Amino acid sequence: MTKFDEATQAIRVDENTYDVCLDPGYAIGGPLNGGYLMAVILRAAVDASPFEHPVSQTAQFLKAPVAGPAQVRIEPLKAGRTAAFARATLVQDGVGVIEGLITTATLHDAEPLYRDEAPHRMPPIEDCAKLPEPKPESGMTLNAQMDLLFDPPTIGWLKGEPTGRPESRAYFRMAEPQDADPYVLALAVDALPPVVFSAGGRGWAPTVDLTWHLRALPAPGWLTLLGSGRLVADGWFDEEVEVRDSAGRLVAQSRQLARVGRG
Questions:
Q1: Pick the CATH number of 3-107+118-259 from 2.40.160.210, 3.80.30.20, 3.40.50.80, 3.40.50.880
Q2: What is the pLDDT of residues 76-97, one digit of tens each?
Q3: Which of 34, 88, 133, 211 places its Cα 20 to 30 Å from the Cα of 63?
């Protein structure tokens, strides 16, 4: 069991309740990363499902949970021959902090009827760049859990040179050797810095709603994250992320709505 597996572990209490312990190692300056929290919820939802894979998850972030004990409560809605549907709530101190819906099914490594190409060609890994190591007092503990190597123009905002477009692109893998699985993909779809940074935004950009889909089980190796946005207005922005595996296949896609950071 890897550190990430332990950090997302869900222990069954009864038919519909799981105990979890939210790990402070997945914080972004205080709040816990949304993708990490979704992975925690998925552990419980898949265990409670008759199917093996979480093919769709949507979450509304009602309140920022803190590191420590919490529970995941599962409400089965329907189970058919090919898919099951459930409502999942992350509860802390008796209050629901994340509410969402999850669809589970069993994916097979079938040859696709149609497969598109990545919308952007990444430079070679050796030409990509890391973010500076965060200072210990920053509370940015998430950085230590994963390796991200960025397409250099998309982190120009670090030098005060944003591209002017909401975008972020990087190669991704876990810092501890681990082949990507659906839970790692839940983290990956929310691992990039907010795309609004490249459009000139700053500060913590809290996610309000995030939906992601598992499209295929990834091959071992680096993942490629391609993030973009379409509109930044009235204090809100959208972010879409495509995740490609080492073979170039689309394995996950997400869309979220978030607030533009202040400061």
A1: 2.40.160.210
A2: 999 999 999 999 999 999 999 9
A3: 133
